[in-house]
Design a protein that fits this description.
Layout lengths: L3 H11 L14 E11 L2 E15 L5 E12 L10 E5 L9 H5 L4 E3 L13 E3 L9 E5 L8 E2 L5 H8 L2 H18 L7 E6 L1 H17 L5 E5 L10 H6 L2 H10 L5 H4 L3 H22 L5 H15 L3 H6 L6 H7 L7 E2 L7 E2 L13 H21 L24 H11 L4 E7 L7 H11 L9 E6 L9 H18 L26
Parallel strand pairs: 4-7, 4-9, 9-10, 10-13, 13-14
Antiparallel strand pairs: 1-2, 2-3, 3-7, 3-8, 5-6, 11-12
Helix pairs in contact: 4-5, 5-14, 7-9, 9-10
């Protein structure tokens, strides 16, 4: 037995599972593969680079490695005129997976036409990818995807350096500088696209890249934007959700016939006008509004939201979103999704003030997680045992000094070539479409930059591109935005004095 013990010890060490061993990220690595995709009927060859690139500290020492995937069309020699799109998702702990394999990239995960999971899991060609008009890089911030800080950093140093609004913007701007230099893309027209918290990120990056790296952009695309540090408290915050409630109620066919028979985009302007002209002032007055007027306002809210006048009065005209998600279909035994209210869920009890879970997010994780893990390792050939974090540990997140909306405004003011497009789904209750419009109005209250701002609405939720019809339309909107924001040959970046036109920002369209 004594002779056998050393052998057993050796065997136990040899058989220790890989998961129990310490996994180190390669801070600087690349794997290149060649592919083709058919977009708008044309076969497009491209090179995919899956790899990591370091984040450097002030002394030039690597402190993290960010995983990225870069798609470069290989039959275009003139990179000076070839746009580059730099893509971020949100969270802030979310990987850059959602837009990567469901929106703008050359490959598309296997889902049905409305965005629900299908098996077998996998990837197919994306016939709507923007790769025909631009090269794209999908960047994963620290602790998302396969990106990690170096293991020699203390936890408090990692948090201070990476996990906050302004820290995030600062280190990612430096990373972009390195990437653009390595890929020889300084001459290229450049665009940032961000989704959800990614809109906070890219709004801040627009100014940081200009002021700290002297890198000037042609466009910023905000997909399902956050508040961007633009305050909306009290009556404004409470009232601004009503147009989203109306859109959701219309989708679930619970509105009265006079509204339900109208098209969605024909009905919403009426709700928006009521919100601005009547609801905000009514909530502002509080008890001084009087019982009769309060009941009148509650009746109109019930008409537009699908909720009962009774529960609206119980909430003093201020209906929390979580209550709406629980209440709208309560009598039918269902809840609705926060990020996409087309999705419905089932709670343990019908009673309660908020849903038990997010049915839309669980559905998305169901389809995206196996697809991205298969794609990176099998098709892009990037081999690693590190876990791909769909949502990584980045808490606590420092949200202080969030001035990103004003940062974007300042970047646009400084750069006459910089254009903005906002894309929102009408059924998104987390980053709703009406507050996305509100952002634009408050960013540029004078209207001097309205000809460089546009809004696009879609009949889906937070990730509007999951619906196949919106996938095609929203990608085409990006194509048109890129084409429209490229200056004509010889056109200088300068302002010319002209009389400002009154009215709403140009380019606003509803679908």
């Amino acid at each position: 037995m004594k002779r056998l013990f050393p052998l057993l010890l050796l065997l136990s060490v040899a058989l220790t599972p890989v998961a129990a061993q310490k996994l180190a990220l390669k801070l600087d690595s690349t794997v290149l593969t060649k592919h083709e995709v058919t977009v708008k009927g044309k076969r497009i060859p491209y090179t995919a680079t899956a790899g990591t690139q370091p984040v450097w500290d002030e002394k030039g020492k690597p402190v993290a490695g960010l995983f990225y995937t870069y798609y470069e069309r290989s039959d275009v020699k003139d990179k000076a005129n070839r746009p580059l799109v730099i893509s971020f998702n949100g969270g802030p702990g979310s990987a850059s997976v959602w837009m990567h394999i469901a929106y703008t990239g050359p490959r598309l995960l296997n889902i049905d036409k409305e965005g629900y999971p299908l098996q077998p899991y996998g990837i197919k060609e994306n016939p709507h990818s923007i790769l025909d008009v631009a090269d794209i890089v999908y960047v994963n911030p620290v602790n998302t995807g396969l990106s990690r800080a170096v293991d020699t950093l203390k936890a408090e140093d990692v948090s201070k350096r990476f996990f906050g609004v302004n820290a995030d913007i600062k280190y990612l701007a430096g990373w972009i500088n390195t990437f653009v230099s390595r890929k020889k893309r300084w001459a290229s027209p450049k665009y940032l696209i961000g989704e959800s918290y990614g809109t906070t990120r890219v709004s801040g990056l627009a100014l940081e890249l200009q002021n700290a790296h002297w890198m000037y952009l042609n466009g910023v695309i905000l997909v399902s934007p956050t508040e961007l540090g633009i305050k909306r408290e009290g009556p404004v915050a409470a009232a601004n959700m009503l147009p989203y409630y109306a859109a959701t109620a219309w989708h679930h066919k619970v509105l009265q016939s006079d509204l339900q028979q109208k098209d969605l985009t024909a009905m919403l302007p009426e709700v928006e006008e009521f919100t601005i002209n009547e609801l905000i002032p009514a909530i502002t007055r509080g008890w001084s509004l009087g019982d009769q007027k309060r009941k009148e306002i509650a009746g109109k809210m019930a008409h537009y939201s699908g909720l009962s006048e009774e529960v609206i009065l119980q909430q003093n005209l201020s209906v929390p979103p979580a209550f709406f998600w629980k209440e709208l279909l309560r009598k039918e035994g269902y809840t609705i999704g926060r990020l996409d209210s087309r999705y419905i869920g089932i709670d343990k009890q019908e009673i309660g003030l908020q849903p038990d879970y997010a049915p839309e997010l669980t559905s998305w994780l169901h389809s995206f997680t196996p697809a991205i893990n298969l794609y990176i390792r099998e098709e892009l050939k990037y081999k690693t045992d590190i876990k791909y974090n769909m949502f990584g540990p980045v808490r606590p997140w420092d949200n202080s000094d969030d001035n990103t909306g004003d940062n974007l405004r300042q970047a646009m003011a400084q750069n006459p070539n910089l254009h903005l497009m906002v894309q929102s789904g009408y059924y998104d209750g987390a980053c709703d479409y009406f507050n996305a419009k509100y952002n634009m109005w408050q960013m540029d209250p004078s209207g001097k930059m309205q000809d460089r701002m546009s809004f696009k609405g879609y009949r889906s939720g937070h990730m509007m591109y999951l619906r196949s019809e919106d996938l095609a339309t929203s990608n085409e909107d990006i194509r048109e935005f890129i084409r429209a924001s490229l200056p004509k040959p010889g056109q200088p970046a300068q302002y010319t004095r002209k009389k400002a036109d009154a009215g709403m920002p140009t380019g606003q369209t509803n679908r």
